[in-house]
């Protein structure tokens, strides 16, 4: 019975081992990719089947509830979508692809473990499992230009990552020192009476830091644009999307420690939100590299997600989860186009998208949907998410924050629109038409449909997210 | 829901009008040839137009309630409903939209040669969102459609536009979007104070003055950009000049009306006190727009630009009529919205037809064509006369009502608007004079063909409406009396104490 509770993790683990053994022997090209896709799909199905399962494992260090299963389900589905979105993996040398997928699976496994962790140690170990796999994926990119830009990115990634981890560990040590426990459900009541103690606030704030890093919230954002730019397109697609879901999950979990009374924490979260929005949007305005632009826009989106956390309330948390689901879909759609347009896995400039409409109408359409959705234009998921976040923040009394957020929306339109403009009214010159793989076509159609469906019918997702948040409060 | 009369037709007429074009658009990608796409779009838009006529025949003009109502829950956790309905203010606008769309399809028949399917797709999406905006009675539904409309309109300009399409389309998008982001904040604020997104439920509630002021300013920015009112108008000429004919027509006839519709539907009834406070400024801005539009139009060499600037002036009359806040003014404004849609739409069609023949919109290039295309210049003359509010044409009725409404309240202000009417005559007659009797500088125009049957079919219905509204506006006026009376009551003009600022600014 307990085995079923652990099924998604087991599937990923077995898949990882399989990939590991594949990496040891001579193998057929394309096999690792197909295997990984299969593993991701199987894990998604397993998560969906165990959505309403409940229980604890490993001496209460690991908790299965609606919240964890929902986040796992999204993580695995995002993992699968990221795999289907980037079909060819041209940016990584043929002979290390088995290893590449091995680490990719391990990273997903780490994220899946992360959202289920019921104490600080499990959380820390899962986070590191996920992070270190990702650190390794970045330098695996081909060095075609000889600039070794991926090495620079990897070093930046790991240094910032380790620093953020240090901050988080420091915070965790305070939490343990104050309460004498590391399990979440004992931390919550133990912290409540000392919410006015500065040490408790500092502890929570610093523990959040580790996940601010994952979500690219200011001031833990520095790595994002460089890593997106330096990593291969496929790696960047993964880094930009899937870990953020788990990060939001854990941010909600840790922020809920401060619920309902954490006025200092609220002030900090609000400040970080404003800084992230402005920094991300203003810096994105001048980017020419699409991935770099998406990196900065990701910082801004992290700022929007923080609007939900600022409220320190159930609706806000649920909305933040809804938003990150929407973001996952939008950003994957964007990266799908980047991967498909890229020549030999090179980076894509905004000018490379010129006239994409003539080269591949489907890709151009997907790109437009993704950009408009991220800009927050209805009827896509981005608008509905932003709208609900704003409503939640306004309701909690953060009117200035709401106004700053809508002003940021207006700023961000420009750079998203420039991409759409290039795709629709640019001149393709003599660039040939693009042959798009059937699986990419299917993925892009699916992502588009989901983006619209999430935006038009948010009720179901929001209801389940609310229920999930209730499970941990 | 006491404001809504649920539809008794037995089928959801408004929803059909909103979603039929969307369904039609969904079929388009399956069609093989360009011609099939054209015919399909024509069939869909005509079907919508024919269906929409029932709105008029089943409308009860004695009631100020929203009719043909439909409501169902949409997003329950935020109390958002899908609620639609039309009253005397939106009825004519919905009808104008649906009746104009088949003409737009016909007008693009030859003009659009490349990517016809995608063009028709965008047109049908536009129709869905435009009808939806006028029919929406839920604020979120309204906002979703209001913003979603930007995407197909942007694509219409960005893909099928003229040489400076990139600049024009981006400017259009940025301006309108930047204007309406604060609208979103205002909507959320209203929701939190009333607990509902229902538009009629927000009307006539005792909001504090400071709240009203903020909401009014957010509304005003969004709608004034859309209208466009005087200092916010710069996107309009660019967008008009670069857009394809059908795009210009939709832009001028329907999109601009959304701004003034917004004033009528939201500003006046929801924030009446703030409206009265800001009224003098808005009125003077309207007058500035009338004069500015007129003078600028007088100097244009590009025909589309000329008409675009004339729109700024005409829309100034509409906002003038709205903000004088009396029955005649507002009814005249609504009628003038309709008139502007008909006349300016027709003028853009006319320019498009010349452009298809000479590939130029320059006034000089079109000089003296009167000799070669007599039917065309006949149409052009009538529409131009209508545009300058010649007695007997539709705009005369509208402008007369607006001015008589405004003279009743603010004499000096109205007197300042009068030169606008003279300017309209000047720039329109200047254009006519050049085009018809502009000499023989362009002998190569001798080979021009006169209007085809298709083009006559486009212009003839508009011509009928020009004279119909000009001579017998009663059928159009009757439907709006009840709603306008209620609106004036909601704006609180009769009951309220005289606004002090207004008396300071008007001698």
The count of strands of chain A amounts to 2
> Please, what is the average pLDDT of chain A?
88
The largest pleated sheet of chain A is described as: 2 strands, antiparallel
**Oligomerization state of this entry?**
heterodimer
Summarize the helix and strand pattern of chain A as letters: HHHEEHHHHHHHHHHHHHHHHH
Annotation field: number of helices of chain B: 21
Structural class of chain A: mainly alpha
Shape of chain B: globular
Question: How does this model look, in words?
Answer:
The complex is a heterodimer of chains A (473) and B (507). Chain A is mainly α and 473 residues long. Chain A has one domain (2-472). Chain A is built from 20 helices and 2 strands. Chain A has helices spanning 2-5, 7-24, 31-49, 66-85, 97-116, 120-137, 149-179, 184-191, 198-215, 223-230, 233-255, 263-284, 290-310, 314-341, 356-359, 361-375, 381-395, 399-425, 438-456, 459-472; strands spanning 55-57, 62-64. In chain A, helix 17 (381-395) packs antiparallel against helix 18 (399-425) and helix 17 (381-395) packs parallel to helix 19. The model of chain A has no long low-confidence stretch (mean pLDDT 88). By secondary structure, chain B is mostly helical. Chain B has one domain (4-502). The longest helix of chain B has 32 residues, at 327-358. Chain B is built from 21 helices and 3 strands. Chain A binds chain B through residues 315, 357, 361, 368, 372, 377-379, 383, 387-388, 390-391, 394-395, 399, 402-403, 406-407, 409-410, 413-414, 417-418, 420-421, 424-425, 458-459, 462-463, 466, and chain B through 74-78, 118, 140, 143-145, 147-148, 150-151, 154-155, 158-159, 161, 165-166, 169-170, 173-174, 177-178, 181-182, 184-185, 188-189, 191-192.
The gist of it:
The complex is a heterodimer of chains A (473) and B (507). By secondary structure, chain A is mainly α. Chain A has one domain.
